[in-house]
């Protein structure tokens, strides 16, 4: 059953009410709507818990998509109680974790602005993220850090703009990822825009992001690794650079 993915329109929504619509053999739970982000595009799915009418909690270990993007499955930790079909639950996203992932994912977008090369891979983490670029050039990590922090400190707005699948197909150049295709098939595609009138950047992405670059906070490039003749891996971490980096 298609779910109303509330996070697509409000990244800051961390709690909501929902009704159980399906329970899988492995314990996975489907709802009529959810504020839990499902693993996709290099960003991990949300964790947190469901609150039942009696105040008890069902702790969740992961959120993932089903066979199609319209299906989102919430997977409880082992040994947790199971709800019943039609039960109303209050959803609680682990907000501190989600917010760190939002900040990190936005930082990855800023890196793609500073390094305008095709992206060959990416993984968003709570404390470290990586972005791989199809590039052979040598680049100084401190220079990249300084340019990223300039974008952070300029406090550009970050917002979504929706386009149709057809508009995306007609403008393939806006896709920066070389290997991962944008989330299509839902009839519309979200463009993550940075800067007034998208002056800094605009690219298709289904992840969650902060609303202004200042929220990213202090970040730095901890390491640039050579992964083949024309592939470079950039590792982003929170905080200022240290001697250990």
Uncertain ranges: none
Given the structure, what is the number of helices?
Answer: 3
Number of domains: 2
Identify the CATH class of the largest domain.
Alpha Beta
Alpha-beta content class:
alpha+beta
Walk me through the structure.
By secondary structure, the chain is of the alpha+beta class. The protein folds into two domains: 4-93, Beta Barrel (Elongation Factor Tu (Ef-tu), domain 3); 98-238, Threonyl-tRNA Synthetase, Chain A, domain 2. It is built from three helices and 15 strands. It has helices at residues 95-114, 141-153, 165-170; strands at residues 4-5, 15-23, 29-31, 33-34, 48-51, 57-65, 72-76, 88-93, 119-123, 128-133, 158-164, 188-194, 201-204, 219-226, 232-238. The strands form four sheets. Strands 3-2-8-5-6-7 form a six-stranded antiparallel sheet, with no helix packed on it. A four-stranded antiparallel sheet has the order 9-10-15-14, with helices on one face. A three-stranded antiparallel sheet has the order 11-12-13. A hairpin with a 5-residue loop joins strand 14 (219-226) and strand 15 (232-238). It is globular, with a radius of gyration of 19 Å. The model has no long low-confidence stretch (mean pLDDT 91).
């Amino acid at each position: 059953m298609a779910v109303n993915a509330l996070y697509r329109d409000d990244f800051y929504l961390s709690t909501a009410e929902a009704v159980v619509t399906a329970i899988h053999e492995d314990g996975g739970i489907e709802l009529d709507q959810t504020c839990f982000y499902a693993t996709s595009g290099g960003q991990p799915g949300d964790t947190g818990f469901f609150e039942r009418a009696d105040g008890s909690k069902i702790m969740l270990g992961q959120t993932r998509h089903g066979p199609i993007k319209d299906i989102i499955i919430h997977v409880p930790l082992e040994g947790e109680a199971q709800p019943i079909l039609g039960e109303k639950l209050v959803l609680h996203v682990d907000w501190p974790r989600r917010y760190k992932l939002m900040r990190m994912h936005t930082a990855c977008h800023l890196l793609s602005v500073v390094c305008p090369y095709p992206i060959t891979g990416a993984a968003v983490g709570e404390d470290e993220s990586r972005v791989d670029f199809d590039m052979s050039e040598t680049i100084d990590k401190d220079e990249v850090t300084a340019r990223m922090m300039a974008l952070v400190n300029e406090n550009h707005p970050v917002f979504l703009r929706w386009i149709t699948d057809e508009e995306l197909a007609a403008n393939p150049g806006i896709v920066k990822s070389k290997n991962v295709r944008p989330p299509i098939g839902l009839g519309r595609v979200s463009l993550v825009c940075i800067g007034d009138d998208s002056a800094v950047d605009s690219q298709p992405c289904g992840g969650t992001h902060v609303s202004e670059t200042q929220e990213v906070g202090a970040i730095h490039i901890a390491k640039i690794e050579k992964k083949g003749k024309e592939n470079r891996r950039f590792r982003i971490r929170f905080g200022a650079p240290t001697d250990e980096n």
